[in-house]
Design goal:
single chain, 717 residues, alpha+beta, Immunoglobulin-like, 8-stranded antiparallel β-sheet, 5-stranded mixed β-sheet, 11 helices, membrane
Length: 717
């Protein structure tokens, strides 16, 4: 044995020598795994469920190791089963499992601080059984609710067994509120221990947390207003009720749902707003809305139970003679209409409501009664005398109402309906009962349709600025042999009110004896770079017997502002299109393939095309087309002036009376033109005598506003 051990030891040493690094890596990974196992016993890997006989559900939760001992809490209102697992995490990306089977709605998984909580949402309080098998945790739901209460008591007792009784009563240490993503609100109540005796109920539209035998810090006895957080919670009131503490949470009137759970000494209530679709699904799933009651009877007559429920519901009760027998039941905090359905289903009964009267009988008896009533109605339709009625239609066309009545199949084979649009009267020949039903139906259709006034404003603002600077000058020189001056082919333009430049050089030197017998000095302009829109000018001249110089400096500066407001307005009924336009038609010439010219007239208009639709919340949905055309300054090859078009198409939702900006266009055009003499105009300083400048800055802006206004008088009925 020693030899073998020695040999084995030698082999290990060789192995360590050859692969020391991988060995230590393996050892480090093993240590990390052991440490992780110490901090977190198991990870939830998979959850599945299967339906069992007797409306039972078995949920199997598989872990990667043995799960820890579960702590189970049963909440009766709303019905939920909460399972806490210490030192447990989740490897599942899915946080919610929809079951929708039996009395089980869904399962939610949450983990924090090395603990995991599994919340089972129930439709009613049911029995449950939970057990561990290897790496799986099996939860069976369904059966008698008494078993559920027994299990809950045992679970709570087992959960609290390891702890010693608190030396001091429960105490509320703090109340806080936080806003979460998705407009959710969270109310957090800090307690001094985990074993606080608490109860959560819904009373008068409020969520009330009752802490029995709990002390409350006087500083916390106040109202916490959290309306500005835009969550389903308005405010939180904390009061002392004798030796108990009560925390009242007032939600908004909007649909909401909440979930309450306790983690250690911290009680958390999460409030979540519901969309209309979610609210409808919730109501369809749990349609009971009656006042909640407690019933605890053993072997009591069923008639007595029905009488108690009718008193709570404030309804008159009629019970058939066939309703007999006793019943045993224990219901706590259950809506009265749900309690009534439970009692009726248990004893094979059914109900019918007519106004404020509740009729209860056996299923067969009520079915037989309804069959007789249906047969009687059919006989009445067949043999009842026909009457003729003329119904005046006020707001709709009689022919349209006739179509609606026939689509609703309110006219029998014996009767008929005839519409006259000229008098807007609908003639109906039917039984008296059927005529009344037709009248009631017409009242729902023949109503004044709401009207909407749509006002648009198109604001066009322009700001123009222009500057022009130019020069014109000429010079002439002459001696006995030669002369120099402006080209005769370059005409000179005399300057008004300037005697020097408004006459010919020969006239200017007419009195000079030295020049009379010689040739005339040329007087044409050498540089003509003036401006067309000059608002001011400066001219000067210089003249001797042999030399002439004339010059003119021209300048212009302008600044203009323009604002055009177009305000089309139109009124139309809800859901009906409306169009308003104003403008002109301009001729446009076209030439076809045969060379024949035709003239076509095109609209250049300001046009508003709108379809309003009133939606809930005093809002108006608008489908808009806004067009503004104008005749341009540019011509095509046929001499047609081009049309400038500005159009906006959009669909928006606007509050009644609110003004919004639909859009805008900003155009800024800047130009600068320099005219100069080649080469000479590029010279520094002196080059200004051989050039002119024209600069323009044109800024235009278009803004479109829209304002819908509901005509309130049309909404009154």
């Amino acid at each position: 044995m020693q030899t073998v051990n020695r040999h084995r030891r030698i082999e290990i040493n060789r192995m360590q020598t050859r692969s020391l690094v991988p060995f230590w890596l393996l050892l480090s990974a093993l240590m990390l795994t052991l440490v992780g196992r110490t901090a977190q016993a198991a990870m939830l890997e998979d959850v599945s469920f299967v339906s069992l006989p007797g409306k039972k559900i078995e949920v199997q939760m598989n872990f990667d190791g043995a799960p820890s001992e579960p702590k189970v809490y049963l909440i009766e209102t709303p019905p939920r089963l909460v399972i806490d697992l210490a030192e447990t995490g989740s490897a599942m990306a899915q946080k919610t499992l929809a079951v929708k089977s039996g009395d089980v709605d869904s399962l939610h998984f949450a983990e924090a601080n090395g603990r995991m909580r599994i919340v089972t949402n129930l439709n009613a309080v049911v029995g449950y059984d939970i057990r561990a098998e290897g790496n799986s945790l099996l939860l069976e739901l369904g059966g008698d609710s008494a078993v559920a209460r027994t299990h809950a008591a045992e679970a709570n007792q087992a959960a609290s067994a390891p702890r010693n009784a608190p030396a001091e009563p429960s105490q509320v240490r703090g109340i806080d509120f936080h806003r979460l993503d998705g407009d959710r609100g969270r109310v957090t109540i800090e307690l001094n221990d985990e074993g606080a005796n608490l109860d959560i109920v819904e009373e008068g539209g409020n969520v009330v947390v009752n802490l029995t035998g709990a002390n409350l810090n006087p500083a916390l006895q106040q109202r916490l207003d959290v309306q500005d957080f835009a969550t389903p919670v308005n405010y939180i009131d904390t009061v002392v009720n004798g030796s108990n503490a009560t925390i009242l949470i007032n939600p908004t009137a909007s649909p909401y749902d909440y979930m309450a759970y306790q983690s250690g000494s911290q009680l958390v209530l999460d409030f979540q707003p519901l969309t209309p679709a979610e609210q409808k699904a919730k109501e369809d799933f749990f349609p009971y809305k009656g006042e909640k009651i407690d019933l605890n009877f053993q072997n009591v007559e069923i008639r007595t139970v029905l009488q108690i429920i009718a008193e709570v519901a404030e309804k008159n009760l009629v019970v058939s003679d066939n309703v007999q027998g006793d019943i045993t039941l224990r219901l706590k905090n259950v809506p009265w209409d749900q309690a009534l359905d439970i009692v009726l289903k248990t004893k094979g009964l059914d109900k019918r409501e007519t106004g404020n009267v509740l009729l209860v009988g056996t299923v067969g008896e009520i079915a037989q009664r309804e069959a007789v009533e249906l047969q009687s109605q059919q006989s009445e339709i067949t043999v009842a005398p026909l009457v003729t009625e003329f119904i005046q239609i006020d707001y709709r066309k009689a022919s349209v109402i006739k179509e609606r009545v026939e689509e609703a199949k309110l006219v029998s084979e014996r009767g008929f309906a005839m519409a006259d649009d000229e008098t807007n009267v609908l003639m109906v020949r039917e039984t008296a009962k059927q005529v009344e039903e037709i009248r009631d139906t017409i009242k729902q259709f023949d109503v004044e349709v709401a009207q909407v006034m749509v006002q648009a404003r198109l604001v066009t603002a322009s700001n123009t600025a222009a500057k022009e600077l130019g020069i014109r000058w000429g010079a002439g020189f002459k001696n006995d042999r030669w002369s120099i001056g402006g080209s005769p082919n370059f005409p000179s333009t005399p300057v008004v009110h300037n005697p020097i430049l408004s006459q010919d050089m020969a006239d200017a030197v007419e009195d000079s004896d030295a020049l009379k017998e010689n040739m005339t000095i040329p007087g044409n302009l050498m540089v003509d770079l003036g401006v067309d829109r000059a608002t001011s000018g400066l001219a000067f001249g210089f003249l001797t017997d042999r030399f002439l110089l004339s010059a003119e400096l021209l300048a212009m500066e302008s600044d203009g502002k323009l604002e055009i407001v177009s305000q089309p307005k139109v009124i139309t009924t809800n859901g009906k299109p409306a169009v308003i336009k104003a403008g002109q038609e301009v001729p446009t010439r076209t030439i076809d393939a045969d060379g024949k010219m035709t003239v076509e007239w095109k609209e250049v208009v300001l046009k508003l095309d709108v379809v309003p639709q009133i939606i809930p919340g005093d809002k108006v949905q608008l489908d808009l087309i806004i067009t503004e055309d104008s005749v341009g300054e540019v011509y095509d090859e046929l001499g047609n002036r081009l049309i400038n078009k500005q159009e906006l198409r959009t669909s928006i939702v606007v509050s009644d009376g609110e003004t919004v900006v639909l859009g805008g266009v900003l155009r800024n055009q800047t130009s600068e033109t320099i005219s100069k003499t080649p080469l000479l105009g590029d010279l520094p300083v002196v080059g200004n005598l051989f050039k002119s400048r024209v600069s323009d800055n044109d800024k235009r802006e278009l803004l479109i506003f829209i304002t819908p206004q509901m005509i309130r008088e049309s909404l009154r009925r």
